[in-house]
Amino acid sequence: MLAGMALFEAFVALHVATGAVGLTAFWGPIVTKKGAINHRKWGRAACYGFLGAGGLAIAMALLSLFGPDYRHPEVTDRALYDGLFGWMMLYLGILTIGFVDYGLAVVKHIRNRRALRSTRYQAVIAAVIASGAWCGYFGWQVGHPLMMLVAGIGIVAMLIQLRYIWREGDPPRQTYIGEHFRALIGMGISAYTAFLSVGLIRYVPEHVFNPAVWAGPSVIGVSLILYFTIKGRKPAAGAARASGVRPHPQ
Predict the structure, then answer these.
(1) pTM given for the model
(2) What is the CB neighbour count within 10 angstroms for residue 110?
């Protein structure tokens, strides 16, 4: 038991360290000029931090679910605990890694979108969908709508990615920018949600099951996606009108 607790605490410490890097660097690409050196540097730091935090979230979730001893005995509703800090944490870790993987891949394969159809990328998307479906189903079983909502958001995001990957013909050249941006904002949403859970249960356990707190990152992240998507379409529409070409819907 002591060895299991020590391992869990080590994972928490590493999760905090890597998560802090990702959570801090995440805002760099948002406020810096897109495509510039600083944008890329901040973006890489955020991605590497979140990859580490996502992998550790998966490890902590598995220990919470299948470890030899109970984590946080002060939580009396063990079914709900297994849902939020087991299956939902597992799903959020996989989702974070999936967003990072896709966000970097669409930039890497700008000229060869069909490379995203390989087993290597499709397996990651399939893992996100499968873990999200189980998270949503478990949330329905324990009567917690937050688990179903978060699962639904991630699954819809994966379906949008699949639509881009498998669409017929070649999309407009700049379409990948929107895909890249939405994926990395999604990375931030899932990482902030997972990271909050670690702090909440340690410092404000009375709010650990508060849906308003857990939904905060999703509200902010989706708002950012909508804001920058609308902002990005205005110059494109203006340029299209000036050239007499109708803008292609994304």
Answers:
(1) 0.79
(2) 13
